[in-house]
Amino acid sequence: MFIFHSISFRLVSYSCKHLEMGLYGIRACLAGKYVQRSLCTTCNSLSSATKTAPKVTPLSKILIANRGEIACRVIRSAKRLGIQTVAVYSDADCNAMHVDMADSAVRLGPAASVESYLRQDRVLEAAFKTGAQAIHPGYGFLSENVEFAELCSKEGIIFIGPPASAIRDMGIKSTSKHIMSAAGVPVIHGYHGEDQSLERLKQEAEKIGFPLMIKAVRGGGGKGMRIAYTPGEFDSQLESAKREAQKSFGDQVMLLERYVERPRHVEVQVFGDKYDNYVYLFERDCSVQRRHQKIIEEAPGPGISSKTRKELGEAAVRAARAVGYVGAGTVEFIMDPQQNFFFMEMNTRLQVEHPVSEMITGTDLVEWQLRVAAGEPLPLDQSQIHLNGHAFEARIYAEEPKNNFLPGAGPLLHLITPKPSSDVRVETGVAQGDVVSVFYDPMIAKLVVWSSDRASALRKLRSCLSEYNIVGLNTNVDFLMELSSHPKFIEGDVHTDFISQHYNDLFPVKSITDNLVSQAVLACILNELKVSSSQQGSTRDPHSPFASYPMARLNHSCQKSMKMTCQGVTYDVVVTCCENGSYKLKVGESAEILASARLSESDNVTSIELNANGEITKSRVVLLNGNVHLFTKDGSVTFATEKPAFLKSLGQGSIQQGGAVAPMPGIIEKILVKDGEEVQLGQPLLVMIAMKMEYVIRAPEAGVIEKVNYKVGDSVAKNAALVRFVSADKK
């Protein structure tokens, strides 16, 4: 019996000369074969092709050639399908969550990714050793590596991703532009030529005009990408983009394009199988970015009309069909304020932000990947995929938003997340006590929420962000709360320059109220009493002063002075304990506050409830290493308590170093000066690599280099003195 599907197909060859985009057809399946009959809408000629149906190879064991949250994400879907999983790890990840979750694990090598996760030979060796039939590359690392995909095919290992030819065609941006243009996908024209001489690139830049986008042809994730706003910036931005591209992709060929101002970054999730079926799962808006990298994503795109949505999806399917795509892919577009869109690139892998597409379509895209890789057809056709509700994803990073989003590293001393549910997902690869390493991306987790409409989904996102409490390193959680509360973001008026345009609004000076100071002070006092009680025991004598008067101490007054420092300001607080268990607090010269407070603990979360002059407020609280961390519905704030005199003498006081310091933990990539060299204010001194991104360290003043303290390849801690020099004023 024949089964007919009214869908479009990509033929190996055509009986007419017209473009593939002008074809539609049907498929008939019988006895392991299927027939493609396609009609050209231009000349009405009929093309047919009989193909052997792909062999279905049920997967029983896969290896995940990645780490962190994406490795954990793949393991969860695989386990649900009854598929065994093999993890790989570097020395830095030997105790990582993905290693613990997998059925087995294989060491790849040292912490540096070039010696571990990027070692194709060791990954394949691990697959052979463990009997894995297929390799899931995740994203990053080897996921878009043509050579690795080809090597897997040659060695008989299933690569859970598109064919190598599609990765090659879409991985080289200049090639992909030509393919997309031929397939009828809108493109922005620029220079994609082979002549990469500085003279030719400058000539082409002048023709295109400024501002100008400089992009690595093999780039992605914002790496190897720079914007030159004026001709004077072109040389330095080009050189920086080349260095970063060489480090990230082993290739420094560049393309040039006109930079579209106030653009939106809109992308479409597509999926193809080995039977020439293609579908799209609607669009995602990823416009709000820092350092050309996404920070918050949503689906569907706000304000996009049904007509544009359909056009976007159909254009993305044409793009996938043009390269014979198989598996999960994302077609990225630049969209102008009039909703005209232009092809930017295709990511030939599962994207970081894929969960928002899953939430609005009710699908598991990792499961789809595994089924398609095994040779099964897509579970749904386009008519069965429906858009339902709205979803947001916020990326939780270890970074310093107020310091140009510099990436960070360090221990997760305290980590509490929102409770996962059917409409709240926490995609992570770390737990409390783990360390965010300098060797890898600083993303801690992805917080994903869904609701029936955008407004309610956004409210849910803000609420969940307030429940994401981290101590031990700087994060972007408070920034995400400010961003998701901004009136323009609430309106959906988003674009790639959103952060720079609304910078002052997104980085307000936090107001430290007497209420917050009182919470911090009483949290300390109540915690001290709790500790003292646990150490000394409590009296059962109802007439004892210790029973009715918790601050009572023999031969001591019931008044205590404390100093709390926050945001560089020290608050002098006098606390008096009243007989009924309440407190009188005087913060500086402010009016006295009559307050009562209690600490409570539930699910490893400690909270303080403060009743101050009849007003009740509640916050989560963490007391650690002499600091009081308060987490409120409006964000977090940290108070430092005053150290006793004997502890101060043991501290390492602040030492002013004469020279440039490392703004974050990282690795020295390039040294641009030598001992004894004269330098000018702002002159580049060194290049650091941190979290796969390049940072240029410049001279803080004019002077002479006395000594370069590190060599290429050295790891350096945050605030390490990189060079020592004498300023020009002291010569």
Q: Termini distance? A: 92 Å
> DSSP helix count?
19
Structural class: alpha+beta
Give the spatial strand order of the biggest sheet: 30-31-32-33-34-35-36-37
The CATH topology of one domain, please? Answer: Glycoprotein, Type 4 Pilin
Percent strand? 25-35%
Q: Give the beta-strand count.
A: 44
Rg, please? 29 Å
The helical percent reads 25-40%
**Low-confidence blocks of residues:** 1-31, 37-46, 646-658
What is the annotated CATH architecture of one domain?
A: 2-Layer Sandwich
Shape: globular
Could you give a short account of the major beta sheet?
8 strands, antiparallel, barrel
Organism: Daphnia magna
Subcellular location: Mitochondrion matrix
Cofactor: biotin
InterPro entries: ATP-grasp, BC-like_N, Biotin_BS, Biotin_carboxylase_complex, Biotin_carboxylation_dom, Biotin_COase_C, Biotin_lipoyl, CPAse_ATP-bd
Describe it.
It is found in: Mitochondrion matrix. GO terms for molecular function: ATP binding; metal ion binding; methylcrotonoyl-CoA carboxylase activity. Keywords: ATP-binding, Biotin, Ligase, Mitochondrion, Nucleotide-binding, Transit peptide. This protein is of the alpha+beta class and 731 residues long. Among the domains are: 61-160, Rossmann fold, CATH 3.40.50.20; 189-258, Dna Ligase, domain 1, CATH 3.30.1490; 514-533 and 556-648, Glycoprotein, Type 4 Pilin (2-Layer Sandwich); 659-725, OB fold (Dihydrolipoamide Acetyltransferase, E2P) (Beta Barrel), CATH 2.40.50. Helix 4 packs antiparallel against helix 5 (164-171). The longest helix is centred in the C-terminal third of the chain and has 23 residues, at 514-536. Mean pLDDT is 87; it is low at 1-31, 37-46 and 646-658.
